[in-house]
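Risk register update: the risk of archive-format incompatibility is retired. Evidence:
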Amino acid sequence: MKESDALRPAGAKLNEPWQAEVLALSIALQETGHFSPAEWSTILADEIEKARAAGDPADGSTYYNHVLAALERIVAENALLPIEAIAQRRSDWEDAYRQTPHGQPVSLPKDPATD
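Archived output:
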Protein backbone atom coordinates (compact mmCIF):
# COMPACT_ATOMS: atom_id res chain seq x y z
CA MET A 1 0.00 0.00 0.00
CA LYS A 2 1.26 3.50 -0.85
CA GLU A 3 1.75 5.93 2.03
CA SER A 4 -0.93 8.27 0.66
CA ASP A 5 -3.44 5.39 0.46
CA ALA A 6 -3.37 5.25 4.25
CA LEU A 7 -4.56 8.87 4.30
CA ARG A 8 -7.67 8.13 2.21
CA PRO A 9 -10.71 7.71 4.45
CA ALA A 10 -13.16 4.91 3.75
CA GLY A 11 -15.80 7.43 2.63
CA ALA A 12 -13.58 8.93 -0.08
CA LYS A 13 -15.15 7.79 -3.34
CA LEU A 14 -14.48 8.99 -6.86
CA ASN A 15 -17.65 10.84 -7.82
CA GLU A 16 -16.40 13.24 -10.48
CA PRO A 17 -13.92 12.93 -13.37
CA TRP A 18 -11.76 15.74 -11.96
CA GLN A 19 -11.15 13.67 -8.84
CA ALA A 20 -9.64 10.83 -10.84
CA GLU A 21 -7.66 13.28 -12.92
CA VAL A 22 -6.10 15.09 -9.96
CA LEU A 23 -5.19 11.78 -8.32
CA ALA A 24 -3.72 10.43 -11.58
CA LEU A 25 -1.71 13.61 -12.07
CA SER A 26 -0.26 13.38 -8.57
CA ILE A 27 0.75 9.77 -9.21
CA ALA A 28 2.26 10.60 -12.62
CA LEU A 29 4.32 13.43 -11.14
CA GLN A 30 5.62 11.08 -8.45
CA GLU A 31 6.44 8.36 -10.95
CA THR A 32 8.36 10.82 -13.13
CA GLY A 33 10.45 12.00 -10.19
CA HIS A 34 9.05 15.50 -9.69
CA PHE A 35 8.51 14.73 -6.02
CA SER A 36 8.75 11.68 -3.81
CA PRO A 37 5.88 9.64 -2.41
CA ALA A 38 7.07 10.62 1.08
CA GLU A 39 6.93 14.32 0.19
CA TRP A 40 3.45 13.83 -1.30
CA SER A 41 2.20 12.01 1.80
CA THR A 42 3.56 14.69 4.12
CA ILE A 43 1.94 17.55 2.19
CA LEU A 44 -1.36 15.70 1.74
CA ALA A 45 -1.50 14.88 5.45
CA ASP A 46 -0.74 18.51 6.27
CA GLU A 47 -3.53 19.74 3.97
CA ILE A 48 -5.98 17.30 5.56
CA GLU A 49 -4.97 18.36 9.06
CA LYS A 50 -5.30 22.07 8.21
CA ALA A 51 -8.79 21.46 6.85
CA ARG A 52 -9.85 19.41 9.86
CA ALA A 53 -8.54 22.06 12.23
CA ALA A 54 -10.77 24.51 10.34
CA GLY A 55 -13.81 22.26 10.89
CA ASP A 56 -13.74 20.06 7.81
CA PRO A 57 -15.57 16.73 8.31
CA ALA A 58 -13.48 13.58 8.68
CA ASP A 59 -15.94 11.48 6.68
CA GLY A 60 -14.11 11.35 3.33
CA SER A 61 -16.57 13.63 1.55
CA THR A 62 -13.95 16.34 0.98
CA TYR A 63 -10.88 14.14 0.49
CA TYR A 64 -10.33 15.04 -3.16
CA ASN A 65 -10.46 18.74 -2.31
CA HIS A 66 -7.47 18.03 -0.06
CA VAL A 67 -5.76 16.08 -2.84
CA LEU A 68 -6.20 19.08 -5.14
CA ALA A 69 -4.91 21.51 -2.50
CA ALA A 70 -1.90 19.28 -1.88
CA LEU A 71 -1.19 18.97 -5.60
CA GLU A 72 -1.37 22.73 -6.12
CA ARG A 73 0.91 23.27 -3.14
CA ILE A 74 3.52 20.69 -4.11
CA VAL A 75 3.60 21.90 -7.72
CA ALA A 76 4.21 25.45 -6.49
CA GLU A 77 6.74 24.44 -3.82
CA ASN A 78 8.71 22.40 -6.35
CA ALA A 79 8.53 25.24 -8.89
CA LEU A 80 6.86 23.03 -11.50
CA LEU A 81 4.57 25.97 -12.26
CA PRO A 82 4.54 29.50 -10.90
CA ILE A 83 1.86 30.05 -8.27
CA GLU A 84 0.38 32.76 -10.49
CA ALA A 85 -0.14 30.23 -13.31
CA ILE A 86 -1.89 27.85 -10.93
CA ALA A 87 -4.15 30.64 -9.65
CA GLN A 88 -4.94 31.76 -13.20
CA ARG A 89 -5.86 28.23 -14.33
CA ARG A 90 -8.09 27.80 -11.27
CA SER A 91 -9.80 31.08 -12.13
CA ASP A 92 -10.20 29.96 -15.76
CA TRP A 93 -11.86 26.72 -14.60
CA GLU A 94 -14.18 28.57 -12.24
CA ASP A 95 -15.22 30.96 -15.02
CA ALA A 96 -15.77 28.09 -17.45
CA TYR A 97 -17.79 26.18 -14.85
CA ARG A 98 -20.06 29.17 -14.18
CA GLN A 99 -20.63 29.76 -17.90
CA THR A 100 -21.35 26.14 -18.85
CA PRO A 101 -25.03 25.17 -19.03
CA HIS A 102 -26.13 22.57 -16.50
CA GLY A 103 -25.51 19.03 -17.68
CA GLN A 104 -22.94 20.05 -20.29
CA PRO A 105 -19.24 19.21 -20.02
CA VAL A 106 -17.01 22.03 -18.87
CA SER A 107 -14.21 22.87 -21.26
CA LEU A 108 -11.44 25.40 -21.34
CA PRO A 109 -9.78 27.09 -24.26
CA LYS A 110 -6.27 25.80 -24.87
CA ASP A 111 -3.65 27.19 -22.55
CA PRO A 112 -1.35 29.32 -24.72
CA ALA A 113 1.57 28.43 -22.44
CA THR A 114 1.33 24.78 -23.53
CA ASP A 115 1.16 25.38 -27.27
